[in-house]
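Aim 2 progress. For Cyclase, the working sequence is reproduced below.
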Amino acid sequence: MTLDHTDPVGAIAEAAKAYSNWGRWGDDDVLGTLNFLDEAKRREGAALIRRGISFSLSQSFDMDGPQRGWRRRTNPIHTMLTTGTDAALDNQGFPHGIGGADDVITMPLQCSTQWDGLGHIFDHGKAWNGRDAEKVVTAEGDLVTGIEHMAPHVAGRGVLLDVGLVLGRDGELPDGFAITEEHLTATADAHGVGVGRGDIVLVRTGQLARVRREGWGDYAGGDSPGLSFTAAGWLHRTEIAAIATDTWGFEVRPNEFDHAFQPLHQVAIPHIGLLIGEMWDLDALAADCAGDGAYEFWLTAAPLPITRAVGSPVNPIAVK
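Predicted structure tokens for this construct:
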């Protein structure tokens, strides 16, 4: 795909038409590309467990996170409801000396490691599968494609594409680096791994490693490496089930068009029906993959079944 940087509207319309999955799984579909992740694919993923070593791919959920208030997104606020102090003072009202602690957390569902659900992004008022956005997501939440529908399905063969290692300097890509189909293919070839139907693909850019050294800065919403808009065809053609990155916005920032905002989202979610993950911590997994040369693994990354939500926090677990 050749980009006219002055015409995001035309490019989005062209890609949406070329890569649409509307109607592919019927008019009532609520899973999108997760339909590619079937029982056989899960058996394939489970067979990749050899050593039994596991990796959490989640960032921390605490007040030291990256959020700066954009679109009212804040870092998690963790509050204790009852504590050991209450128990020691024996003011909890329980018999025979038993005590306990409870807590509560308040946070936007997209504030740290998370999935974007199918109701998260629209294109000209249309949601996934051609539905009218105003009939899908209301003040009551996502009435059709709520993230709870995906909760049983996100587990199978995971593939890491460490683009930062293969194409970057010291394992990191610079901000503004647009990852094309050619970059993804070259990385897969360098790792000796294939990518195809039903896979959950993880793309490491190395940006998270950099901000850990230098501070959050504009990690949440600022410039970053990420997928090029031209990779839309690869996302569609490979028939992957889901994709996640170690960046805030999945696609390259600044975006590749003048006066544009997240154009790849506008194609990938409402038209391809692709499950997108952001702010995943891939560094420890990447180091292990580089050490043993195996870039495929069992991955489970179920969203919380929050009824009618358009996204969800997640603690993905990769097992090798």
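Residues 155 and 300 are 4 Å apart (CA to CA). This observation will guide construct design in the next reporting period.
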